[in-house]
Specification:
- By secondary structure, the protein is of the alpha+beta class.
- Helix content is about 30%, strand content about 35%.
- It has a 7-stranded mixed beta sheet with strand order 1-2-3-4-5-7-6, sandwiched between helices.
- The longest helix has 13 residues.
- The chain is globular, with a radius of gyration of 14 Å.
- The two termini are about 25 Å apart.
């Protein structure tokens, strides 16, 4: 399985992947989307958005038939090699996963200004949300 950078022609397939996995994801501006396929089917995807120049990892989804095989780890490592500084938000239940990948759980006040309002907006819908930073 190879990780690929999506181009414009891939976006409709990626949107269908998210929808079929019951995840609402959208692309904004200069997003980069990385995805993995198996037998020409998308099985994992992640989106990196750029708020100002700050990379923000979100929409990390692995098809349930392929979970627990290390695909999420592979795709996040791929992003980390391309981008030395990444922020993300995730439920507290995923803290060990992100820490294992080198992310640090941080106070939301330590987020870049461009991400703080986004964090508080998301936190209104999920009060168990944590902020994470990866610094190479």
């Amino acid at each position: 399985m190879q990780i690929q950078l999506a181009n414009k022609s891939d976006k409709n397939s990626i949107k269908r992947f998210y929808k079929s996995n019951h995840y609402s994801a959208s692309f904004m501006g200069d997003d980069q989307c990385f995805y993995m396929t198996s037998q020409e089917e998308i099985i994992a995807s992640v989106i990196i958005s750029f708020s100002s120049t700050t990379p923000f990892l979100h929409a990390l989804v692995v098809n349930r038939n392929y979970q627990h095989q290390g695909l999420a780890t592979q795709i996040v490592f791929h992003c980390q090699h391309r981008l030395p500084n990444i922020n993300c938000f995730a439920d507290k239940t995923l803290t060990k996963f992100y820490q294992k990948l080198g992310f640090e759980c941080i106070n939301s006040n330590n987020l870049p200004d461009c991400l703080q309002s986004r964090f508080y907006s998301y936190q209104r819908n999920n009060n168990t949300l944590n902020a994470f930073q990866y610094r190479a």
